[in-house]
Amino acid sequence: MTVLILQHVPWEKPAALGNYLTDAGVPWRLDNLTAAVDVVDAPRISELSGLVLLGGPMGAHDTDRYPGLALEADLVRRAADAGLPILGICLGHQIVASALGADLHPGTAAEVGVGEVEVVADGIFGRAGDRQPVLHWHFDVVDAPPGAVVQASTPQTPNQAFTLGDSIFGTQFHIEVTPDSLADWLAEPAMIADLPPGLAITLLDDLAAASDAIKPSANRLFEAFASGLQK
What we know:
- This protein is α/β, with parallel strands linked by helices.
- Helices cover 31% and strands 23% of the residues.
- The strands form two sheets. Strands 2-1-3-4-11-10-9-6-7 form a nine-stranded mixed sheet, with helices on both faces. Strands 5-8 form a two-stranded antiparallel ribbon.
- Helix 1 (16-23) runs parallel beside helix 6.
C-alpha cells in the first residue's frame, strides 16, 4: 500500500510533503497521468493508501489538451468513495473540489507571491481570525465542494483551503514548497514568464523569510492527511 502523488509538471514536486512522508516511514510514489486516455492507465484504488494531487500550470478542466485530468477527477471520486485520504494542492485542490461537485472559475483571481490567508475556522491552520503566511501561485478559483468546511480565505479567493470530513483536504496555496523547490520553479522559463516585474528576484527571499511561520501549519496538514492512510 502506497501513497500515490500525481505530478503534472516535472518541477512541481512533493518537496516538504515528500520529506514528511519519508521521515514518517510512509511509502509513496510519483506518477503523471496528464497524457493518459484510458481508465486502465489509472492505478487501482485497492493498491493505494492515499492520494495526493500536486499543482501545475494547466486548468483543472483542460481535458482537451490533457485528457488525463478527467481520469484524475474520476480517481478522486473513487478514492473518496473508498474513504482514502486525499490532499489536493493548487491545481490539485481545484481538481479535487470540482470532481466532488464544486464550481471552477477560470481566470478570476491572480495571486502570485508570498502573502497571507485569513483562517476562518479553528483547525489545521490555527484559530479563526489568525493570519497565516503562504505562497500563492494561481489564476483560477474553485468553490468548496458540498459539505466541505472552508478553512482559510482571501478576498480574491474565498476558498483558499477546505476540509471535507476527516480525510479530504485542499489548499489553493502551495504549502508544500520549500526555498529549494521554489528555486527549481524559478529556473523554468514557463513559470517566470507571467510574473510581475521584479517578483522573481525577491520571491526566494520572501519565502525563506516566511518558512518558519509556514512549517507548523504544513506539518499539521501533512499529519492530518497521514493519520488516515490505509494500512
